[in-house]
Structure formats: C-alpha cells, structure tokens
C-alpha cells in the first residue's frame, strides 16, 4: 500500500503489539514491531500508543507488558500496561452471582502492579479490555485514580457505554473509550457514547473502527476536544484509519485536534520531542 501524503502531524492512541509467539497465536495477527513501524510510517503516523494483544485466559499480562515496553525502546511507540481482573463486566443475574464470588487470582492485576507501572517511566497509561480480560477490583481502580494516567477502555456490546459509566466513570481518571464505545459497528452504542461526553469531562473517544462518517463528524463537531485518533493497528492498516478522518467534512483545525492536539494533551509522551 502506498504511503499517504498529507500535511498533518499524526499520533495514534490505539495500536497493539504481539511481543511473542504465544501472543501471536492467541491474537491471530502475525506482525513484527518493524512491520508495524513501517506501516505507521506509510500512513504518516509519527508516534503511537501500544499495549499487548490479548493473552489466553488465565495468563498474566506482566511479561507481555514488559515486552511491549522493551519493544518501544528506540521505536516510535509509547507503552501502555494492560490490566485484567476477576469481575464479570456484564449486568445480568449470572454476572451478579459471579461477581459475588469473584476472587482475584495470581494472574489478575493488583494495586501494587498499578503503582509499579505508574512510577515506571516506561509506561504512560493503561489499557482495559473487560469483555476479554474482566474488570479489575475496586482497589485496583482506586489506585488508577491515584495514578491519574489515561486509561484506554475497549467496550462494545459486551461492555456498553452505560456499563462504562456505571463501573468506571465514577473514578477520577481520564478514560478513552475505544471505537466510540460501539465495537463492532454498533451505531446505537456509538451515539450513546457521544451523549455521555456531555456529562463526563474526563471521557474521550478514539476513532478506531468507527467507519461511519456521520458519527465521526458528529463527535468531532460536537466535542472537538474529546476525540482522538486511533488506527486499530495492526488489525487495520493505519492508512485506513487516517483516510477516514482525512475525508471528513470538517475543518483542518478540527482534524489537527483529532490527529495530534487532543492526543498529546492526554498523553504528553506523544508530543514532538518528548523523551520516551
């Protein structure tokens, strides 16, 4: 795929790295850090947040997080630590019963893990994927609040925007809801997320896998300071995500906010010349 030509400085808040063969097998996408860096360069993306892809159930993210941090050295990646937990993110009676008996296992994130990541200058935020990894316990979320670093949350039908509001938005840390909270391609959930932006000052959305021009434009026009670019790489070539924003019917100033100004304000390590 040919490289894109544009005049924007672009940083990406949504990419993943599979640091070893076990992760690749579980994640289903064999792509090296070098290839991901090359694809980012083709799209004109100068720096990207990266966190591990999914691990098999019962596996800790500790080694994967550390591997991503190592891979980020001397590359244009900013490492985020991925956290898991024992709580079921659903709201039905089955989830309620499970959560009554949910006990943290050895592979689940603990408050001390959050504290360690927070003070380790290799990590600049956190990633939660409740539909696959479960929800951390309250003591872990309280430690995230104390750290006050951005938390990227993957939601969707298994963890919809109202669940995000109920479980996470009561804590005082920045939340970036990936894919406008509507993955995969659920316009009702995406619109519900945009409604929530008016009620929660520290809620943001990223553009990965949104695909609907009218929803992207609504987000950018109604909440110009709360939309950040996310490609969803390596599942989607970064060129695709960039083009979806470049073809919106919005001003260049708004595009610059989405591509760089908003993400850099949220994640200072994405700034030009930042020491990562």
Relative helix content: 40-55%
SSE pattern, N- to C-terminal: EHHEHEHHEHHEHEHEHEHH
Number of distinct helices: 12
Q: Could you say which overall geometry the principal axes of the C-alpha atoms support?
A: globular
Q: Specify the biggest β-sheet.
A: 8 strands, parallel
- Spatial strand sequence of the major β-sheet: 1-2-3-4-5-6-7-8
CATH superfamily, by name, is: Metal-dependent hydrolases
The proportion of residues in beta strands is 5-15%
Q: Can you describe this structure?
A:
41% of the residues lie in helices and 15% in strands. By secondary structure, the chain is of the alpha/beta class. The protein has a single domain, classed as Metal-dependent hydrolases (TIM Barrel, Alpha-Beta Barrel). The chain is globular and about 50 Å long. The two termini are 29 Å apart. About 2% of the residues have low confidence.
Short overview:
The protein has 276 residues and is α/β, with parallel strands linked by helices. The protein has helices at residues 21-27, 33-43, 62-72, 93-100, 111-119, 130-133, 138-147, 161-167, 187-197, 213-222, 238-246, 252-266, and strands at residues 10-17, 45-52, 77-83, 123-128, 151-153, 175-177, 203-206, 227-228.
């Amino acid at each position: 795929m040919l490289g894109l030509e544009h005049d924007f400085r672009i940083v990406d808040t949504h990419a993943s790295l599979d640091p070893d063969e076990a992760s690749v097998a579980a994640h289903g996408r064999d792509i090296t850090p070098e290839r991901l860096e090359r694809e980012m360069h083709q799209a004109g993306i100068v720096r990207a947040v990266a966190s591990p892809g999914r691990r098999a159930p019962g596996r800790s993210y500790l080694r994967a997080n550390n591997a991503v941090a190592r891979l980020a050295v001397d590359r244009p990646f900013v490492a985020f630590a991925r956290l898991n937990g024992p709580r079921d993110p659903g709201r039905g009676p089955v989830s309620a019963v499970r959560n009554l008996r949910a006990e943290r296992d050895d592979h689940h994130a603990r408050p001390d893990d959050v504290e360690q990541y927070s003070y380790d200058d290799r990590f600049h935020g956190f990633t939660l994927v409740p539909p696959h990894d479960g929800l951390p316990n309250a003591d872990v979320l309280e430690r995230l609040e104390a750290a006050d670093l951005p938390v990227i949350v993957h939601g969707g039908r298994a963890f919809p925007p109202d669940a995000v509001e109920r479980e996470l938005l009561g804590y005082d840390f920045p939340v970036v809801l990936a894919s406008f909270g509507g993955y995969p391609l659920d316009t009702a959930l995406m619109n519900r997320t945009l409604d929530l932006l008016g009620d929660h000052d520290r809620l943001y959305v990223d553009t990965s896998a949104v695909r609907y021009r009218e929803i992207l434009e609504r987000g950018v026009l109604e909440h110009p300071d709360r939309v950040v670019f996310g490609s969803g790489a390596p599942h989607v070539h970064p060129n695709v995500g960039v083009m979806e924003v470049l073809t919106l019917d919005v001003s260049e100033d708004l595009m610059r906010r989405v591509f760089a100004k908003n993400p850099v304000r949220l994640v200072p390590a994405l700034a030009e010349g930042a020491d990562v």
